[in-house]
Amino acid sequence: MPASTLYEVARHAGVSLATASRVLNGSNRRPGGAISERVRASADELGYIANAQAQGLAKKNSGILGLILHDVSDPYFSMIARGVQESVQDHQKVVLLASTGRGLEAERHAIATFAARRADAIVIAGSRTDNDAASAENSLILAELRRYKANGGQVAVIGHPVVGSHPDDGFHSVPVPNRELSSRLAADLAAAGHRRFLVLAGPEGLVTSDDRLAGFQEGLRHAGLDPADVHRTGFNRDGGYGAAVELGARVAAMERPEQRTRQGGGPAVCVFAVNDVMAIGAIAGFREVGLRIPEDIAVAGFDDIETLRDFTPALTTVQLPLADLGRAAVARVLGGETPAEPAGIEGTVILRRSTELP
Amino acid sequence: MPASTLYEVARHAGVSLATASRVLNGSNRRPGGAISERVRASADELGYIANAQAQGLAKKNSGILGLILHDVSDPYFSMIARGVQESVQDHQKVVLLASTGRGLEAERHAIATFAARRADAIVIAGSRTDNDAASAENSLILAELRRYKANGGQVAVIGHPVVGSHPDDGFHSVPVPNRELSSRLAADLAAAGHRRFLVLAGPEGLVTSDDRLAGFQEGLRHAGLDPADVHRTGFNRDGGYGAAVELGARVAAMERPEQRTRQGGGPAVCVFAVNDVMAIGAIAGFREVGLRIPEDIAVAGFDDIETLRDFTPALTTVQLPLADLGRAAVARVLGGETPAEPAGIEGTVILRRSTELP
DNA sequence: GAAACGCGGGAAAGCGCATTCCAACCTTGC
DNA sequence: GCAAGGTTGGAATGCGCTTTCCCGCGTTTC
Predict the structure, then answer these.
(1) What is the CB-side half-sphere exposure of residue B270 using CA atoms within 13 A?
(2) Residues A174 and A157: beta-carbon distance below 8 Å
(3) For burial by CB atoms within 10 Å, which of A268, A281, B55, B249 has the most?
(4) Sequence-ordered list of residues with C-beta below 8 angstroms from that of A29, at least 6 positions apart, any chain
(5) How are beta strands B121-124 and B154-158 bridged, if at all?
(6) Cβ contact, residue pair B96, A96, below 8 Å
(7) Residue A260 confidence (pLDDT)
């Protein structure tokens, strides 16, 4: 029992294909009431379901939005995915998902796949990588994106723009103020009394990580403090864990500068892990080597992942409206209610127990 | 600059449409070497990208797998999504995502949408709801699924089968041994010395929750213990939190049965929250009212969510190979390397600090 | 009352591709 | 050397739908 076609519905209702099409699938010409009734009844009776592929071929749009993520199971991305998904649903479209596992070639491939499916728009989330090793692949990605755009597709990137892209390319972007927020985090931490810092950053060239690092240092400088030490590691939980185990003892042994003047304890060092899962890993690692948070060492993260809100000690972090990021990206490419927020997305520094001083 | 078509490539290479089609998009007839070369070169030069919609229309499959989830941002589902995504990628297909937010009508709509796109297969994850209120919508879902299947689609359900479905329907399923594992958890907890239990369950009719509850009681019975008290609440973090705040004081005041015989403390009650996020919420709630875990009250969860592995105290839970669940579902519907695992999926009870007795 | 007009419905031309026939060609085998 | 069988490339058809164009009809206008 193959699905019934529009043609069958038309015949069953005693009208032409054109008429059936007009009444069932939106057209600017609405056939007369009686006929519409009849067609709709026939469609119902036959259990007609329009073939979206054929429609897509005939009209020139597919109703598909392609979403490219590094990893759906990462809470950062899954939250963005949720925002995208919701918005897209409002637009009566559907989302096609691709996970790249941070691979640039996989990303290029995903773009090509979406292009092949004639996706109306593509939203890319996830940090760009910008270093020599990646430059060849970055330009392939750029080329693919340009071709896609030239064929009428819309592109939005969440976070840093595509490496090498030019404003004229017309790629939309939803900037994430990583730099500013990290700077503010540094300022707040300094204001709270922290003096020495260590940043657990991702690999060099990972733009999000680099931005957060740079912003943090900037904030420190504004506060009149020395720049933080930097330790590069994996941009994930294990990176944070490994670094903590490796550095734990050394870091804890550092002398707290004002220990002489101000009585008493508190951690000598405040560690800023450039994202929450790294921070969680780091905390686990520090504990592994016998350090207490925040008594022996303070830890701050970035993202404010929902699942981690009940973590103990409560994690100091920067809240990012992840779902909104996704929604904003969709608004950029599919139009609709784009509020006055093209200016950007807000975030908030949240100081919690993990960086508390006695 | 519209995308170039196969026809243009063929003309550019001086061959027929048929030949070009045969060399570029897999066919069982491979044209001769020289010609293939030429066609491929032309395609390259013109930047040809096959139109998947047209291909889908001509062949009768779309290369699309539809994935239906309750909520992408829920770590349970996002992990399944990851498994599905990976497998699907291996099959050179693409995944279409739908989130229902636990709405049955949304689920039906998602199925219809996927059917319209002529998805090759549909994978449904997420607990079924089985109660009177849902029965009308459940049968609509069932009807939609049957129609989809009748048109040649494959269906796989992770967890409990579709409510009302009959084995003859031929829907694949990836059973999750919720009952057995909960039973085992109860047994292990009993063996560890716990005697009184409280289950924080989801709303009645939510099959996953009901199964875990029933299994737990069963395990308790086998261990010769009294059945646990049951408190129904939301199947999410806030449900756990609310219940904990509400019940905290009362629960903590309960007398530990063998307190007379065996010296000393330990929690009087062990709380089993039917999923990890509820457990986390419960822990936060209990703390809110001044209770310590596990000294004053023990808490266990279910799922072993990855992000929660570094939680303190480490959460006793049941590990479920979520990504494998997704992979298995894809294997069922798309074939391929289906190991000898159609028998089912394994899980493991993991006793951690959150239920430790002194 | 005739001409101009608007409107509702239908015929038909694609959209970009896979695939079934066909015809021409090239191998074989005896 | 010739027929039978196997290849190979091409013409044509159709997948299910949208949309343009056209035609016939009932209205309006002077």
Answers:
(1) 35
(2) yes
(3) A281
(4) A22
(5) parallel
(6) yes
(7) 40
pLDDT recorded at residue A343: 56
- From the list A81, A96, A287, the residue facing B94 with the nearest CB is A96
DSSP SS3 for B225 = coil
Query: What is the pLDDT at residue A342?
Result: 54
Cα separation, B297 vs B283, whole angstroms: 9
Is residue B81 within 8 Å of B67, Cβ to Cβ?
Answer: yes
State the CB neighbour count (10 A cutoff) for residue A90. 14
SS (H, E, C) chain A: CCCCCHHHHHHHHCCCHHHHHHHHCCCCCCCCHHHHHHHHHHHHHHCCCCCHHHHHHHCCCCCEEEEEECCCCCHHHHHHHHHHHHHHHHCCCEEEEEECCCCHHHHHHHHHHHHHCCCCEEEECCCCECCHHHHHHHHHHHHHHHHHHHCCCEEEEECCCCCCCCHHHCCEEECCCHHHHHHHHHHHHHHCCCCCEEEEECCCCEHHHHHHHHHHHHHHHHCCCCCCEEEECCCCHHHHHHHHHHHHHHHHHCCCHHHCCCCCCCCCCEEEECCHHHHHHHHHHHHHCCCCCCCCCEEECCECCHHHCCCCCCCEEEECCHHHHHHHHHHHHHCCCCCCHHHCCCCEEECCHHHCCC
**What are φ and ψ of residue A221, in 5° steps?**
-60, -45
| Region of B173 on the Ramachandran plot (φ > 0 left; ψ -120 to 50 alpha; else beta) | beta
Model confidence pLDDT, tens digit, residues A75-134: 999 999 999 999 999 999 999 999 999 899 999 999 999 999 999 999 999 888 999 989
Domain annotation for chain B: domains and CATH numbers: 6-59 (1.10.260.40), 64-174 (3.40.50.2300), 178-319 (3.40.50.2300)
Is B143 part of the contact surface with chain A (CB cutoff 8 Å)?
no
Cα→Cα distances A170→A127, B51, B157, B230, Å: 19, 24, 42, 57
Please state, rounded to an integer, the average pLDDT across all residues of chain B: 90
Residue type, A323: A
- What tokens appear for A70 in the block? 């590094």
Nearest nt by C1' to B10 Cα: D10
- Is A311 an 8 Å CB contact of chain B? yes
Q: What is d(CA B354, CA B279) in angstroms, rounded to the nearest whole number?
A: 10
pLDDT (tens digit per residue) in B148-159: 998 889 999 999
d(CA A264, CA A258): 10
User: Which nucleotides of strand D are protein-proximal, with an atom < 7 A from a CB?
Assistant: 8-20
As a whole number of angstroms, the distance between CA B48 and CA B44 comes to 6
Instruction: Compare CB distances from A72 to B51, B85, B112 and report the shortest one's residue.
Output: B85
Q: In chain A, which residues have their Cβ closer than 8 Å to the Cβ of B52? A: 113, 116-118
DSSP string covering B239-293:
HHHHHHHHHHHHHHHSPPGGGTTS-S-S-S-EEEESSHHHHHHHHHHHHHTT--T
Each residue of B270-311: pLDDT tens digit? Answer: 999 999 999 999 999 999 999 999 999 999 999 999 999 999
| Contact list, B147 vs chain A (CB under 8 Å) | 47, 49
Asked if B49 is an interface residue toward chain A (Cβ–Cβ < 8 A), one would say yes
Query: Lowest mean pLDDT: which of A1-15, A227-241, A285-299, B153-167?
Result: A1-15
Question: Out of A51, A57, A284, whose CB is closest to B118?
Answer: A51
Helix (H, G, I), strand (E, B) or coil at B206: strand
Percent of chain B predicted with pLDDT > 70: 93
Phi then psi for residue B295, to 5 deg, are: -60, -45
The C1' atom of D8 and the CA atom of B30 lie apart, in whole Å, by: 9
Contact between residue B143 and residue B177 where contact means Cβ atoms under 8 Å apart: no
> What distance in Å separates residue B212's CA from the closest CA in chain A?
22
